[in-house]
Amino acid sequence: MRIEQYISQLLYRYQCVTVPGFGAFLTENRSASLSEDTNTFYPPKKVISFNFHLKNNDGLLANHIALAEKIEYEKAISLIEEEVTSWKYTIQKSESILLKNIGKLSLNSESSLVFEPADSLNYSTHSFGLTSFVSPQIKRETFKKEVEQLEEKAPIQFTPEKRSKSNSWMKYAAIFAIGFGMTGYFGNQWYEKKIATETLLVEKNVQQKVEDKIQQATFFIESPIPSVTMNVEEENNNSFNYHIVAGAFKEVRNAERALQSLKDLGYNAKKIAPNKYGLHPVLYGSYPSIEEAQTALQSIKQSHNKDAWMLVLSLEK
Asked: Which residues of 21-33 are buried (b: 16+ CB within 10 A; e: fewer)?
């Protein structure tokens, strides 16, 4: 009879299983671990070891065999002694003993008994069903370099036309604000000035929400859109608050290249200060009224760049 199957059964429940006259198999709990060299995660487990000094019969193994085989306790003791005699004889011939799901026993060059535990079975009941797995390494710097190379070849333009459908409500808000500002065109001068001022501030707040959405869609930053708070203040009639944007660039050299290209085409182009996301906007031109800006935008879309868009921002002439 091979008794290693009964030893294996007891190792699930006990930390020490003694084989009378031979030695004891011990278990030790180990926490979950990570191998940084292979990116492998290992679940909690019981590690098996062997102590040949613990040879006294504690009755655990013999009782278990007697119950499983339905034999007398003395008969179980006799079967264990026969198995131990066979193990000792095998080891004396310098041969190894392979115990299934437990490990291998052999003699080293110094004639000392050596135990090599098996990794085929995890005796920790808390880790039932868990296995090791490999997680691929995350290479953030590699992705960043690839994005920069793509931008060098084809500069990214942030345009309203390429936003998701969920942003359509902001377009309608901008149209409403523009229409609301134009209703004062036929009123008296004071009313026209007040309505235009309020319209400008609404457009600025809408534009801010657009920029937040662009940042979220482009750089994968999950953050709620800030609430719109409108404070109506008087604006300078000489300010150029409406601008036609050709693109916004992360690299300064790409922005300078685009700026020079527009100037060569005869546009009154300019590059403004970086926005809060570190992007450098390049403009076709700036206009004091929304009517002039809309006319210019329509012309630019038809003749040069269908992705051009309008930015509402206070800039002195």
From this structure: bbbbbbbeeeeee
